[in-house]
Amino acid sequence: MCGIVGYVGPRNVPDVLLDGLRRLEYRGYDSAGIAVLQADDIAVCRRVGPVGKLIEAVSPELTGHTGIGHTRWATHGGVTEANAHPHMDGPERIAVIHNGIIENHQALRARLQEEGVVFRSETDTEVLPHLIRKLYRGDPLEAVRSALQLVQGTYGCAVVFLDHPGTIIAARNGSPLVLGKGNGESFLASDPHALAALTREVVYLEDRELVRITTKGWEITRLDGAKIDHAIHLLEEEWGSGDKGAYMHHMLKEIHEQPESLRRCLSGRVVPEEGGARLGGLDLSPREIVAIRRVGILGCGTSFHASLVGAHAMEQLARIPSFAEIASEFRYRNPLIEPDDLFFAVSQSGETADTMGAIKEVQVKGGRVMGIVNVVGSSIARTCGRGVYVHSGPEIAVASTKAFTSQVGALLVASLMFARTRALGPHEGKNFGEELLKVPDKVREYLDNPGPILKAVELLTSGKYVFFFGRGVSHAVAMEGALKLKEVAYVPCMSYPAAEMKHGPIALIDAKTPVVAVVPDDIMRDKTLSNVQEVRARGARVVVIHTEGDHEAGRLGDVAIAVPRAPSLISPLLTVLPMQLFAYHAGLALGRDIDRPRNLAKSVTVE
Ligand code: M6R
Q1: Which is it for the CA torsion 543, 544, 548, 551, positive or negative?
Q2: CB 350 within 8 A of CB 378
Q3: DSSP assignment, residue 355?
Q4: Which strands make up the sheet holding 322-326, listed edge to edge?
Q5: Per-residue pLDDT band at 174 (split at 50, 70, 90)
Q6: Of the candidates 80, 170, 166, 75, which has an alpha carbon nearest to the alpha carbon of residue 132?
Q7: In the predicted structure, residue 553 carries a pLDDT above the cut 80
Q8: What are the pLDDT digits (tens) for 571-588?
Q9: From CA 510, how far away is CA 574, in angstroms rounded?
């Protein structure tokens, strides 16, 4: 979603800002802009469309040493240049960029309009520069503080004042901001990614904090005025380059990185010789693990699908009552949370607002919640305090692929650890651990020889819509397959537990309706194959994802795709791979913007 960069220092600010915005492109956006302080005015340039268009529009003669830049993902007001950030006050001496939503913007706008302020955009953000102007008495930090005290909602914002060259004021409430320290220069961004090439020394702002940033460093205070000092974090070097390498798209590269990303996630954590697993980041003693009465796993989108697999594993392997729930629903149903519950919050970005809201709901009620997160130092990781990093490395494509398999991997490791502490014998634990450690090689084996993907894609793109079904953990995989094909290829898809088809959805099956059936060779295989027969009898054309060697299952498909054999709970790590490839190749065949599908953002920081 929206991205923020800011810079004060000796470098030429447009170069730093435009480079930073390029690095934030993967988050998803629809317009971009920068504001650069000049001697007599603030130069603003904004464009609808890719950052490339903004770069073309910025005059090479524009120079300066203080500035802010933004990529906007429209929420309030259409995708227009007037709605793009930065926004300015009436006399154009203050420029503001903002991520998040000002919930009381209508009331604030009405009051300002009564006082004669003329608005130039439809955005919620524009109330900020006007409010700040109204409250400005010479001290920029205090003007921003006073304005934000009147604001309800979420913000990560940055403000520059013509009167104060060499200064940026920024503030955070529910929308991430990170400060970067340089030598006689300071950086600001909504995502450490934008800073990776500039500095490794960063500080994460917390909610309701404001900062005055200068070339010498920064001064952080709380919204109520109290001074704060935060320790410097070092950005991890191993985070990786995030470029496409030899691949045409990030998505394809990330699909093919799964053997390594899974190996990183599992290695050192699964300990077959002990029949168990170790996750130091959870910091749970055996006694505490035995005392857990219920596990809740929360996430959104793909992370929710990984949570579903995790809940199956927790219950089946560790025998702890478990459930997975969409984070945005969980937080608003006033859930009961007991002291012996344990929650996991699953998130690739670690910035998803809905998941963050669910975490806060657990914490407000005295519950324990641990992160299963990819991005190190992200808001969710820090808010949870304890948890597991999944170590996928940078995931740039909007469609999540390698993060899914690593999230499932981490949840399987946690399930094994809890299981071994509670009821699982060393022999069974060892077997499960060994099977888990074989997965990276099996993923490689499959990706080297993925089967008739293009034939399947031809079938999947030939109908009006596609059904995905499976049972047990394979239903979670079916949901993930449907989400991938929708978001990357814009093909309408539905997913169901296979047995649900006959309770209504089967009415939609007619001659040639494409169906994807996920049928690994597990306890649900025979029942799912009966469901395949039922849709075939009504004319559906079926792509069957089955276990290698299971020829009977394969024969029921118009297209059959075999994946290596694995125990049922581990099978999603393999059955999901063809789903990812279907989405990628269907997107390619239909000419979609694979890495940045329309309307979507990588990091969903608004509710
Ligand atoms: O960063 P998160 O894992 O918290 O993001 C959650 C969802 O927004 C994300 O998984 C989304 O569904 C992806 N686009 C799916 O490919």
Answers
A1: negative
A2: yes
A3: H
A4: 322-326, 294-299, 341-347, 368-373, 387-389
A5: confident
A6: 170
A7: yes
A8: 999 999 999 999 999 999
A9: 30
What are the structure tokens assigned to 46, written together?
A: 């904004």
Q: Which of 2, 157, 265, 300 is catalytic?
A: 2
SS3 content of the chain, % helix, strand, coil (to 5): 40, 25, 40
The closest residue, in CA terms, to atom 9 on ligand 1 is 301
pLDDT band at 315 (very low <50, low <70, confident <90, very high): very high
Element (H, E) at 333: none
Compute the distance from residue 432 Cα to the ligand 1 centre, in Å: 28
What are phi and psi for residue 331, nearest 5 degrees?
A: -65, -25
Q: Is the CB of 301 under 6 A from ligand 1?
A: yes
SS3 for 478? helix
Annotation: CATH topology of 250-448: Rossmann fold (3.40.50)
pLDDT digits (tens, 9 = 90+) for 397-428: 999 999 999 999 999 999 999 999 998 999 99
**CB-based contacts of 505: which residues, under 8 Å, 6+ apart?**
467, 494, 496
Q: Which CATH architecture has domain 3-234?
A: 4-Layer Sandwich (3.60)
Domain spans in the chain, listed from the N-terminal domain onward: 3-234, 250-448, 453-589
